[in-house]
TrEMBL record:
It comes from Edaphochlamys debaryana. One of its GO terms (molecular function) is nucleic acid binding. It comes from the Eukaryota. This is Stage V sporulation protein S. Transmembrane segments: none annotated. It holds the Pfam family SpoVS. Residues 1-37 are annotated as: Disordered. Residues 1-19 have a biased composition (Acidic residues).
Length: 219
């Protein structure tokens, strides 16, 4: 799948990676986040059962606050995202929806050590529910470059969603969203993602994909 987001849609200029200033602490860049001290989290293993994880998330959401999902590596991230997508379907009859915000747990953002902070509450001061410009994410996509393009479109008040096929692509999408959150701090904006399963028609075939519907909010 062609990485169309690598270039500006209007003038074909490559989007450069943004630089995040670490002058203020960012949630997820400390050894133990305050949000996790109460023990409301699950550690996602690459060998975990996705429906079992989804069931735990849905049960916690019905009883109170859903847990954070702690992930290390592409396979764990892929599993956690799919579990959230499945949990959303489990909660439909309860009138509950879920979204998540990824945060880096290591100062080195190249490492795929991520906490997915799952929430069932509506975003604060929503600006838009993004589902207009579709950005395809591939296994070779560079998360920080994608994040720069994503942040630029959000600043332009463009509506965006990400679509990923495969483990590495899903992982890259999560990393891109995490980096975009950092880039948007100076704009006093934040984003959260609601994953769902979709089919993408490509080369005469229908392929299963994960769609990240993003919501932008003021902070």
């Amino acid at each position: 799948m062609e990485d169309e987001y690598m270039h500006d849609e209007d003038n074909g200029v490559e989007v450069e990676e943004e630089q995040h200033q670490d002058s203020s602490p960012t949630r997820g860049n400390t050894p133990l986040e305050p949000e996790l001290e109460g023990g409301n989290f699950i550690k996602v293993s690459a060998k975990g059962q996705v429906k079992s994880i989804a069931g735990k998330i849905a049960h916690s959401a019905r009883e109170g606050d859903p847990p954070a999902a702690l992930c290390i590596g592409a396979e764990c991230l892929n599993l956690a995202v799919k579990a959230v997508a499945i949990a959303r379907t489990y909660l439909t009859d309860d009138g509950i929806d879920l979204s998540f915000q990824p945060a880096f747990r290591d100062p080195n953002r190249e490492k795929k050590s991520i906490a997915l902070y799952i929430a069932k509450t509506k975003p604060r001061a929503p600006i838009s529910t993004v589902d207009d410009v579709e950005m395809p994410i591939g296994s070779q996509s560079k998360p920080q470059v994608v994040a720069g393009a994503l942040a630029a479109r959000i600043r332009e008040q463009r509506t965006v969603c990400l679509v990923a096929i495969g483990i590495d692509a899903v992982s890259n999408a999560v990393l891109a969203i995490g980096n975009a959150r950092l880039y948007l701090e100076q704009d006093h904006k934040d984003i959260r993602a609601a994953p769902s399963f979709v089919q993408v028609h490509k080369n005469g075939r229908d392929l299963n994909a994960v769609k990240f519907t993003l919501t932008v909010e003021n902070i």
